[in-house]
Amino acid sequence: MNQLSDMKNKLLVEQTRDRIFHYILDQDLEVGAKLPNEFVLANQFEVGRSTIREAVKQLVSQGILSVKQGSGTYVTSITPVDQDPLGLRAVKDKMKLAWDLVNVRMILEPEIAELAALNATDEDIKRLQELCDEVEAKINNKEAYVKADIAFHVWVASCTKNTVMEQLVPIIDTAVLMFVNVTHQQLKKETIMTHRMVTEAIAAHDSLGAKSAMGMHIGFNRDLIGKLMREEKEQTNFND
């Protein structure tokens, strides 16, 4: 019985850890943001305070949270260590990192979409359409859509049936998270439109169309980040 109880407790802690992490994403909390206290989190997730403490410890070990004695618990990253194979979370200039990442995405993701259009099964396409609908619904309902956005891109990579492509997903995850964090979700209409174009092209097994649509999707992202970087530079020059 003790072993069964321990297994249940471990599972509850892991589930709570994941819920806290997704709470950080859904609330669009930035690095440095302070989490509600232990009592509030326990009530929100309907678990004991000891479960919250253990879940926080796991997120600390993943580099997501840090605990400052007498001050509280703070977000230190939105990318778990195990999803950051290139160590990008340590880069301080987030705008420059977003620019570099979007350029990598411009190289990779149109090709991934092209391969997905060639290899996607009917079941793959059905799931992709569901994810596309989910992103659009969340945006239209003014709900947090980061998780759904990431899931969409991950699934496109999965549709390629290419093992190496699927291993690139952590980089894509990082890029999506970084982009949303830097731009504060400014391209909602463009996201809906281009996600739909990518989905329809893959569903039609139109490889060139899928590549073009994904290129347009990343292009919108790239243009906005470039604009934000120029504005940041102008502001810095003005302050100097």
Overview of the molecule:
A two-stranded antiparallel ribbon has the order 1-2. It has 240 residues and is mostly helical. It has helices spanning 2-26, 38-45, 49-61, 94-119, 122-140, 146-158, 163-167, 169-183, 188-203, 207-239; strands at residues 65-68, 72-75. The longest helix is centred in the last third of the chain and has 33 residues, at 207-239. The chain folds into 2 domains: 2-78, Orthogonal Bundle (Arc Repressor Mutant, subunit A); 82-234, Up-down Bundle (Four Helix Bundle (Hemerythrin (Met), subunit A)). Helix 5 (122-140) runs antiparallel to helix 9.
Q: What is the terminal-to-terminal distance?
A: 67 Å
> Strand fraction band?
under 5%
Shape: globular
Q: How many strands appear in the DSSP assignment?
A: 2
Q: Please, how many helices?
A: 10
Question: What helical percentage do the residues reach?
Answer: over 70%
Instruction: State Rg.
Output: 20 Å
Order of helices and strands: HHHEEHHHHHHH
Structural class, judged by helices and strands?
A: mainly alpha
Taking the sheet with the most strands, its summary is:
2 strands, antiparallel
The name of the CATH superfamily of the largest domain reads: GntR ligand-binding domain-like
